[in-house]
Amino acid sequence: MDETLYDQLGTDFFVRLVDAFYAGVKADPVLRDMYPEDLAESKRHLALFLIQYWGGPRTYGAERGHPRLRLRHAPFVVDETARDAWLAAMRGAIASVGNDLTLEQEQQLNEYFEMAAASLLNS
Questions:
Q1: pLDDT at residue number 69
Q2: Contact 89, 25 (CB under 8 A)
Q3: pLDDT (tens digit, 9 = 90+) per residue, 68-107?
Q4: Rounded CA gap, 3 and 108, in Å?
Q5: Is pLDDT above 80 for 1?
Q6: What are the contacts of 99-103 at 24+ separation with CB within 8 A?
Q7: What's the rounded Cα separation, in Å, for the pair 93 and 95?
Q8: CA pair distance 86, 97, nearest whole angstrom
C-alpha cells in the first residue's frame, strides 16, 4: 500500500497549515466576513477535514458526516475574487509552513486546493 500524504507529513503539518491559512483569512477583507468572529471551530474543522482527506484518521467524518463542501459553502458568495483570495491565503500558508515539502508534495496540495476552490464557485 502506498504511503499517504498524511503518512508523510503528519498531523502537525496540517495543523500548522491551517493556522497559517487562517492568519491569511484574518488579514484578507474579502475572506474575513465569510468566517465567524471566533475561528477556533473553523480551524479545527478544516484541520480534521484535511487530515482525513489526505489519509489520516477519519475524525472529521465521524463528527460531521460527509464533507458536503458545496452545501456548507452555499450561504456565501464564492465568486472568482473570493476563490482567488482563498487560494492566495492557502498558497501563502503552504509557502510559510512547507519548507520541507518535496516538489511532488507541494504540487499535490496545490492541485487539490485549486480543484476544491474551483468547485465551490457559485456566483
A1: 81
A2: yes
A3: 888 888 888 899 999 999 999 999 999 999 999 999 999 9
A4: 14
A5: no
A6: 101/9
A7: 5
A8: 17
Show the cell assigned to 122: 457559485
Q: Say which residue the cell 491559512 belongs to.
A: 21
Considering its fold, how many domains does the chain have in total?
1
Q: Measured in whole angstroms, how far is the alpha carbon of residue 93 from the centre of its chain?
A: 10
Q: Looking at this protein, which amino acid is placed at residue 123?
A: S
Rounded Cα distance between 20 and 109, Å, is 15
Question: 60: domain CATH number?
Answer: 1.10.490.10
Note down the domain range covering 70: 5-119
Distances 115 to 3, 8, 119 between C-alpha atoms, Å: 22, 22, 6
Alpha helices for 54-79 (secondary structure H): 59-64, 69-73
Q: What pLDDT does residue 122 have? A: 93
Distance CA(53)–CA(60), nearest Å, equals 9
What mean pLDDT do residues 100-123 have?
A: 96
SS3 58: coil
- Give the predicted TM-score (pTM) of the model: 0.94
